Amino acid sequence: MSELMTAAVIGMPIELAMQSKLSQEQFYLRAQALLAENATLKNEVQRQLELRRLEWNRAEGLLVQVRELQKDIGKLNRGVKL
């Protein structure tokens, strides 16, 4: 659905939108399409957020490993056996 057409249909005065059976149906179909598109976009945002959370958790785990390795390197530099 074109954004221009959607804006025109949704933005038209209610008297015009409800003037005939055809304009009522057009208005209804555009509204239904927008609801479906909204749901799709919400799902995509949720999916992207979950991916970012997983990436963040993995990065935190890697950071913990790096810090542990830094401690071990410090011990080795001081001659402490691991």
Kindly list the characteristics that best describe this protein.
82 residues; mainly alpha; rod-shaped
Give me a quick take on this structure.
The protein is mainly α. 85% of the residues lie in helices and 0% in strands. It has one domain.
What do these coordinates show?
The protein has helices spanning 3-11, 14-17, 21-77. The model has no long low-confidence stretch (mean pLDDT 91). The chain has one domain. With 82 residues, it is mainly α. It is 85% helix and 0% strand.
Task: Point out poorly predicted stretches.
Answer: none
Coarse structural class: mainly alpha
Number of domains: 1
Q: Cα-atom Rg, whole angstroms?
A: 28 Å
- Main sheet specs: none
Multimerization state: single chain
Overall mean pLDDT stands at 91
Distance between the termini: 65 Å
> Roughly how much helix do the residues carry, as a percent range?
over 70%
Share in β-strands: under 5%
Q: What global shape is seen?
A: rod-shaped
> Strand tally, please?
0
